[in-house]
């Protein structure tokens, strides 16, 4: 196989971009972890010198100074300014790349640690931890050179017993590991790390001699350095003199770097060790049951790849995903990790590197400058020239192969035209030898990319991906596609979403994920894709790519990807998708034992679901948050939303939510919580001042909403008009009328002013409790909550009330589910309502009080858990429309229904009972002009004497009151009528005196006449108004509606005027079906005649003689 490499004639095209990389270019390369790797191999003496600064390795010591601005030449001599950041790794300790046996555990711990940081709440876990840690620890693959070492720095201490011997030993270790074959591949580095891989057969080797200025021998150090320089050349050797002080008070640039680098490593390795031991024990138990001679090794003897690495998977692209996470047997590598010594050593190193102590305390400013100069010298004078030389040499080799490559290229394209280019899973993988043109081209492209030659490397990736495609090497082709997309973005200044080849990344993900079963490579590709596409505004496409990966990844990986996808949906202004995928991410995080991340995702999803009609999704989110959140107040808020009135859950689930809500309140110790159920019809609250009336009729029954016009048809008569006339009749017209002793208050009365209530009588509140749930609710100890108690001068609050009325237990019936065919849960039925009455009895020592709430013990639907709490009572006044501002802002007036002032004196109290047909029903069907007799019985039930009783009515011609007279006969009460047509009857003083003493009684007769004409629901208002000797008044209202119909039809005729003879034709109008029930007997007839002279009425008796007899004298 061969490939076409651009010739010198195309140099201008290839190297057209020679400007310095922008900040975004540098950041995307660093965030993807695509940095040149340099291995560091120190001796024990060198580590001791570094540890004096609380730094465990030389690689960590120089890490803050790893970025250097330099100029790099491409193979054609074009200079390009770039900023090279080197990733120094101590390959003998903790700086190696992690194998996939431990990488998931380390990432799990990294995510767990970062999720607890305060600053984490404002960022995604993708940006704050996962991406950087994955890119830093991800092991090298077999399809590229991006995670292989270009150079190795050997570091020794001049104070060692045999520095030259130590250096020789280190060099031999590296050489053996690189060139010694499979047996020695794992000879360098800890067991939990993947074996180091090397960029070139002949890497750059650099030698460093450390001299401890404080404790070392400078003369000996110079001597050792001279020997090293003589042996390996002065150009690749350098001596560093550090530790010039004991306690330097300088900034600590290592703290953040080391903390982010090693966080989660210690606990992650321990987690991996435990998992490995558990699975190994399980495998041994299974092996004992089958009695095998030995366990099957995880890797072949000739393989250099570690167990479950991407390298081993690259050799067999069809390995399923579970293979990366399942340990079925043991090997020498696995046993090293499981047995613990190597891991324990690395854990301690990681712990020290991640400590909170300061670093570099023995390094002066000069020492730090020396470290910076060392890194700069190494990069500019050794590494960059070495790379330039290698790129030029490798490019020349490929150029020489170009001619023969072209001859094979056309033949290969012709032969491959008949074959399908569609990848088929399960195909035998293709491998390339180290000397193959494709492999060398990929190496050249990776080297050029790592040192900022993005245009040149893009051309190489474009060429090599075609060769991989023709060979159907899908794994290699996917790797070339992702790098071609990345270098295209980095080398283009004006790349937009319209001209970016999105299919490069889509195809690469498909090859890694589906064709070659390489999910970790797919995750790396997704990281690159996110960094590119999010910068050019392709948020939706990026999110869809991340979602594709979640079907085959673990819960932790899937949760991280879903959370990032949700953030991308938010940037794409697709808020419902964002919320939905936050819910999915929260679920996967919960499955991955990441409760903090799970709660965060649910919390971010909640605003999009709350009160948006997504009832079941909202319940799922709120239930999770109320269970897992550590904030007790937030838990209660979430649990409160589970018992919402509009719940569509089934009855069992509603009951479970209510019990969970109550148990949560009990566990958190919430004092007097505000319950959300049952509901209260606030504006239907009715207040009754005192003991009477015992039962308050409905507004329509009492006629408060119905208006009665006066005779002149210009003024509307209301109850207040009757009360005013009765007041002046009993107390005199000069005394100003005031509504001081009200009966009740509700939404129809005037409630602007605070009203008075009598002392030592019940102040009663009627309120409707609504149960919107489909399960019954149990309430206990229901009572009124009182606030703003103001006592009269000289009294304490303990004397305010003599009784608080309490309902011991009340079960609110459930709201029935709709059962009619065709009805769904979206059709809400009428909620169950229960009318209750609560009261308090104030004393005359109390001046003012307010009712604020209903207190009760909420026992849920079963009564098992009782939590004391309250429901607030708040009422709004009438809507105001007077001004434009009031109409626009929906302004409401003041409503003082729940505020009361206690009278200083007792009120008079009569027990008034009405008997008779008209008193038995609020609505009467009568005949025109029919008369009804009603007995009115009075009884004084208080110790206040009655001084006056009046009865007023708005039907003066149809109502009359009679009282007993001295001669045991009944006589009409004296009455007066005002111009508005209101009649007031005054009861005689002699009869009123019967009610002076408590227990005194009096009976009156009331006659009610039906109108002569036919009417329907004609309202009669009758007000009984009585005054006590202490000046307080009280009233009793009685109203009745009459509907009339005609009974008789009378037609008179004059037969003989001279003989005064006439006839009257009388007909019973009751229908035949009702004739048995309504028979009329004519008892007496009389005539009225008006004389022409005196205009006086005369009653003339008329004799009756039946002309036609029908059923005797009955008609």
Automatic annotation (TrEMBL):
Positions of the UniProt region annotated as Disordered: 738-757
GO CC annotation terms, alphabetical: TRAPPIII protein complex
Domain of life: Eukaryota
Domain TPPC8 first Ig-like: 712-916
Name by which UniProt lists this protein: Trafficking protein particle complex subunit 8
Organism: Panagrolaimus davidi
Phylogenetic lineage: Eukaryota, Metazoa, Ecdysozoa, Nematoda, Chromadorea
